[in-house]
Amino acid sequence: ATLRIAAATISYRCVQSTHGRARRALNAGMVPMVEPVTKFALEAPAGLVRIEAVCEHGRVVKVTLRNTAAFCRREDMDLRISVPQLGEVRVDVAFGGMHYVVVDAADVGLELTPENGREIARIGEMIKVATREQHPVNHPEYDYAGPDILAFRSETRRMPNGALAARNAVVMSNNELAWDKPSTWTGMLDRSPCGTGTCAIMALLHARGELAIGEDFEHESIIGTKFIGRLLEEVVVGEGTEKAVHGVSPSVSGRAWITQHAMVVCDPSDPFPEGFTVGDIW
């Protein structure tokens, strides 16, 4: 069983963390490695995650998981949101495991490069909060309100192999934004291509008729790392209810590397046993 805790949120299904946990489980012998493909499941708060790990010469070279159903409702597309200091911004809202505000970076004059990280985070958090205030959403099957995260995306392009590709930058909260306190207009970036964000954007592209079932989608992060997403089939989310929506079942493939083996301890005399925060990036 797994649970991912970020700086300001608990994630009920984090794709990139699941890739890492799958690699760890296989490397540590917690799951017997079978070449060329090992299949198993990890338990997360959002339910069981089915894993397929491609293994070669005793190493994990690719991990693919099937994520929860993603969707983008027609009424959540092409929204016009009024954002302080920015004016009106066109956004879409899509679900890929979290409720994403999706924004074309060019619409707000942003280039998705690492040196623009601070401005990307600031503007992204402002747009997300404004969207949540003006266009709140919820999941059709259970009480999960949003939007709670944002993804800037570049223009999509066709690769020589025919796959669709794009670049993104995902903005997460690191505090509670207050419009009367500009010092709180901050956020933080996901350095990965973001798995649930990839699923949400694939659902949006499918709703626009730009990404077909079975077609690969190469999604690149702000630092150049990549996930390969694919829509496996169309589904109905909340079937049999008045809130049912058409969605898609996505998979995401990627890699992970073990970078550290650590032991965390807590001394009973430590004055900060639960940690601390200061007003820097948090």
From TrEMBL:
Domain of life of the native organism: Eukaryota
Q: Which Gene3D superfamilies does this chain map to? A: Diaminopimelate Epimerase, Chain A, domain 1
**Which InterPro entries does the record cross-reference, listed alphabetically?**
Pro_racemase_fam (IPR008794)
Q: Which SUPFAM superfamilies match?
A: Diaminopimelate epimerase-like
Q: Name one GO molecular function term.
A: 4-hydroxyproline epimerase activity
For this chain, the family text in UniProt reads: Belongs to the proline racemase family.
Q: What PANTHER family has UniProt attached to this entry? A: BIFUNCTIONAL TRANS-3-HYDROXY-L-PROLINE DEHYDRATASE_2-EPIMERASE, TRANS-3-HYDROXY-L-PROLINE DEHYDRATASE
The protein's name: Proline racemase
What lineage is this protein's organism placed in?
A: Eukaryota, Haptista, Haptophyta, Prymnesiophyceae, Isochrysidales
